[in-house]
Every structure is written in C-alpha cells, then in structure tokens.
Design brief:
5-stranded mixed beta sheet; alpha+beta; two-stranded antiparallel sheet; binds adenosine-5'-diphosphate; Heat Shock Protein 90; elongated; 559 residues; Rhopdopsin 7-helix transmembrane proteins
C-alpha cells in the first residue's frame, strides 16, 4: 500500500514536508559512523577491538539508514520491512558494545561463558523480530507503524541498552581502578563517550517511540537528538586514535581522520534545509569539532616534531658512530703496521747484542759488556711490549685465530717453570712446581696461546715478587671437567678494589709503579681475553697490599 497523500521522496530520502532536523540528525551521523568505522577497520583489521568498533558503527549506520527510510518512504511494505530490524540492530549494538569494552579492558577475546550470556540476551529479539510482538500493523493516515509497535518488545531491547550501560560502567570502573594515573584518562574518555552514546541513542529512541505511541506525534522527533550521541562517540574514538593510539592508527593517518570529520560536518550545509535551527546546529557542531580538531592536530604535530628531532639525533649519532668505528679501525691498523715495522729492526738489534755479548766480535771490555747486556734486556722488553700491542689490535679487530688441540697442561706449565728457574734464582726467589692431578690432565685449547698465558702469569709473579716463593700448582675438578693452574706468589699483592681492573686494557695497579717495575698493562688484558675465547678463564685473589696474590687459569678438559 502507498500513502498517497504524502509526496514521493526525491534522491531516495528528500521530502520538503519533513523537518530539516531529520536530515541533519541522520545523514551526518550515518556518514561519520561509516567513515570512522571503515577507517579503524582498514587501518588494523587484524585487531579484534577494531573489528568490534567497525561492527558497532555498521549496525548504527544501518539503523540510521532504515530509520530515514521509514521516515521518508511512502510504501507500507518497505516501511514495515525496515521496521523489523530496529530492535535487532539496537540489541546487537548493546551486546557488541559490551563485547567491545571487554576486549578494550582485557586485550583479549571474551570467554565462551560470556559469549553465551550475550547470545541469550540477544535471542528473544532475533526470534520475535518478524512477529506481531515487534510490529502488528500499519497506519496509512500517518504513514507509519507507531500505533502497532509492540511495547513489550520495544521495552525489552531498550532495556538491553540499559544493561549494556551498567555492565560497561562496571567493567570500565574496575579497569580504571587497576590502572596507573597515566593510563586512566584513556579509559575515562572512552567510558564517557560510549555511555553518552548508549544513553542518548537508546534513551531518546525509547522516549521518542513511547511518545509517538502515546500520540504526541511531534515528540517522536526526540529521537533525532539521540543520534548526536554517535557523532560524539566517534569524536571520542578519534581522540583515542590520535592521543592514545588505541586502535593502532599512525599519527599522520589521524590527521586525515580529523580533516575528514570536519569536511563531513561542514558538507551538510549543502543538503540540510536551511532553517535557522539546522544552520545554528551545523555551525555549533562545526565550531566545537574544529576546536577539538585543532587540539588533536596540535598534539599530532608536536609528536611529528619530536619524532623528527629524535630522527635527527639518531642520524647524527649514527654518523658519529661510523666515524668512530673508522677511526678505531685506522688506529688498529696504525698500531699493527707500526708494530710490524718495529719488530724486524728489533730482532736484528737483539741478535747483534747477543752476538756481541757472547764474544762473536772479540772480547769486550767490562763496561761495554754491561752496556750491551742493557741493550739486550731493553730490546727484549720492547719486543714483548710490541707483541702485546699486536695482540690487542688483533683481538679488537676480531682477527685472533685459535687452533684448538689436546695437550697435557702440566707438561707445558713445567717447561715454562724450568725456563724461568734461572731468572728466579737470580732474583733470590724460590720457584716451585706442584701437581695434584689424578687424571692425565689433557686440556683442549690453543697450545701457543696457552703457553703465552702461562708465560705471562709466571713472569708477572716473578716481576711483582721482591722476595719469597712462587708456587705453580695444577689441580682439577673431575665433575665440571676443568683443569686449574694456580700461580701463587708472596709479592706486592693487589688491593681489593683494584682486583677486577687489572684485566682491563692499559690498567696497572698503583703499587706496580711504586716497585719500579716497567710494564704496559696489556699482558693480563690479552691473556684474559684469550683464556675466555678458549672456554676458560683467569681469576685473581689477593690478601691485599704486600700480601701476595694468586692468579688462577682454568681450561676445559678434553671432550
Ligand atoms: P704489566 O705489563 O703492567 O705487568 P699486566 O697486564 O701483566 O701488565 O698486569 C696488569 C697489572 O696487574 C700490573 O700492572 C700489576 O699492577 C698487576 N699484577 C699483575 N700480576 C701481579 C702479581 N703477580 N702481583 C701483583 N700485582 C700483579
């Protein structure tokens, strides 16, 4: 049936006899809901939160669309058909809103238990939507079905809106209580937005329908005001997107959102009836949204500015880092080249010095002999310093090569002790070698490097012990399969606070200089790094100043 006394709408909805507020309230609300819904959905559709917001916005947009259809259409069948869906969509909006807030507060999907409760609440509406409980007839005089609307059905689905409001308030309040002050604002803003939306939408629609049923025809326009709640809710969502990144939308994309919203609101000047009320309302909304937009964009720009500052700093840092790395490389190369260049002339100096001192060029006078011995000693010290520099530059360039093999650690230690014995006797020191090994004491390590480490540790013990005993002891831990060499001396010792630093590069303890022993502070640095690389370690203990020290080299047993 057709309501002949009403004009057929042009452009689907437009009829001049209807209040301008109808278009003003419906069309922007629908477009804005679609805009924000799609926007959030397509920016991160993999997030459940975004999908739920999209579903709420779509249900709302559809509700608005069929409501507009019911207002403007003059075909009773079309109007009645669309009437069937009001309750369904409203009920869906209320359960989806609860679902949405659950996901917002817990960051995860809801349990099957809650899903069942929500479905049960929805069920009566779904079952009764197409029956007389919903709408039972049509009034051709007024071209609507208000008179035949089932009050019980209407009350039930409006009541769902109330349930949603209470449920959401409880959820958000509990969440808010557990949050820190910093993150609370987000919850508060969303809470106000969604509660106002539900209140205005459900409340006004219910009031409007009841007023129409009670025959206050004009009062049905109350529901127009209810729709503004959605626009407000969408602005709230925009705030959450821009300020709190709730929906994982980037800052620049938010700019598009704000400008899009403003254009949408402004665009209704072109289609809304130019009554003073609509012009006033459009202008008011536009001004309010523009103010909110300016604040939002300012925070976006601030963020972009901060980001570009951070970017600049990080670029500078990267450049400085690159330069440092190349300088470091140059330094290592320089040390390596210089050391190599020094090594060969030194070798010939040492060679000639020993030939001279052994009388290869005839017997030398006593004074010349002493001088030549000094030359030999100094060039030996220099060779070992150069060797240290070369090792450091190899370690730092990552060029140190390790060739693991199996050998008896005790044998190597004994060789070095024997080598050093004459030096110890010269200094009046007792150099002892002991072994508590039960196993064959075979370790897996680089032989050359292990000799170098042992040489360094025993040499240090001799250097830093003016009188007393040096003991080299081998022991093992069968359970952890580690062999230890303890080099204990009765020398100058190391203060507790200097114990760790002796393994550092160029680090020497204060008393080392006091006893007038020359050194570079590199030997232990190199030895420690080497031991670590071979799966072992070097540790040190000391009774303190003047109370001797013990260096312990540990290496893994053969596998
Ligand atoms: P250096 O060339 O100075 O001997 P090392 O790296 O071999 O360099 O040793 C670093 C520092 O550790 C030494 O300067 C010294 O202060 C301390 N040190 C090493 N061995 C001993 C030891 N047996 N007794 C006391 N101090 C030691």
């Amino acid at each position: 049936m057709i309501c002949h006394w009403f004009p057929e709408p042009t452009f689907l909805f437009y009829t001049p006899d209807l209040p301008g507020l109808l278009f003003y309230a419906h069309i922007p609300a629908m477009i804005i809901a679609c805009f924000v819904g799609f926007y959030v959905f397509f920016n991160a559709r993999y997030l459940l939160l975004n999908r739920l917001l999209f579903a709420i916005a779509m249900c709302f947009a559809l509700w608005v669309f069929i409501n507009l259809l019911a207002w403007t259409n003059i075909h009773s069948d079309v109007i009645l058909f669309s009437w069937t869906f009001f309750g369904v969509l409203q009920a869906l909006i209320s359960v989806l809103s609860i679902y949405f807030i659950y996901v917002f507060t817990t960051q995860q999907d809801i349990s099957l238990h809650i899903k069942s409760i929500l479905s049960l609440l929805l069920l009566p509406v779904l079952l009764l939507a197409s029956t007389n409980f919903n709408v039972g007839g049509f009034n051709l005089d007024s071209c609507d079905a208000f008179d035949y609307e089932g009050v019980l059905f209407l009350t039930y689905y409006s009541f769902l809106g109330l349930i949603a409001m209470i449920w959401i308030a409880v959820l958000l309040y509990n969440h808010w209580r557990q949050q820190t002050t910093k993150t609370r604002n987000q919850t508060l803003i969303l809470g106000v937005g969604i509660e106002l939306f539900l209140f205005s939408f459900f409340g006004m629609v219910y009031l409007g329908s009841m007023a129409a049923i009670a025959d206050f025809y004009d009062s049905s326009q109350i529901e127009f005001y209810g729709l503004f709640g959605m626009t407000f809710f969408m602005v709230v969502i925009a705030v959450l997107i821009v300020r709190y990144k709730t929906f994982n939308v980037g800052a620049q994309a938010a700019e598009v959102l704000v400008i899009g919203l403003l254009i949408l609101i402004a665009s209704q000047y072109t289609y809304a009836n130019s009554t003073p009320t609509t012009v006033f309302l459009t202008t008011l909304t536009l001004i309010l949204s523009a103010i909110a937009g300016i604040f939002l964009l300012r925070s976006v720009y601030k963020e972009i500015e901060q980001r570009s500052e951070v970017q600049l700093l990080s670029d500078n840092l990267q450049r400085a880092n690159k330069r440092l790395r190349s300088l470091d490389k140059m330094k290592s190369e320089f040390v390596s080249i210089a050391s190599h260049q020094l090594r060969s002339p030194l070798t010939s100096i040492r060679g000639y010095a020993s030939m001279l001192s052994e009388g290869a060029f005839g017997k030398l006078p006593q004074k010349a002999q002493e001088a030549i011995n000094r030359i030999a000693d100094s060039s030996t010290t220099m060779t070992s310093s150069i060797e240290d520099y070369l090792n450091v530059s190899r370690i730092e360039a990552g060029n140190m090569k390790y060739e693991l093999s199996e050998f008896k650690l005790a044998e190597e230690a004994l060789h070095i002790v024997d080598d050093k014995r004459s030096e110890a006797i010269k200094k009046g020191l007792l150099l002892l070698f002991k072994s508590k090994l039960v196993s064959s004491g075979v370790v897996q390590a680089d032989l050359g490097k292990t000799r170098q480490i042992l040489h360094n540790l025993i040499n240090n013990a001799l250097k830093y012990t003016p009188k007393g005993t040096i003991t080299v002891l081998l022991r093992e831990d069968i359970d952890t399969r580690i062999i230890y060499v303890d080099i204990t001396d009765t020398g100058i010792g190391i203060k507790a606070d200097e114990l760790e630093q002796v393994f550092g590069k160029f680090q020497r303890a204060k008393n080392a200089n006091a006893v007038n022993v020359t050194g570079t502070g590199l030997g232990l640095f190199v030895a420690h790094k080497m031991a670590k690389q071979m799966g072992g370690d070097i540790t040190v203990t000391s009774g303190g100043d003047g109370l001797g020290s013990t260096f312990v080299l540990s290496l893994p047993m053969q596998t």
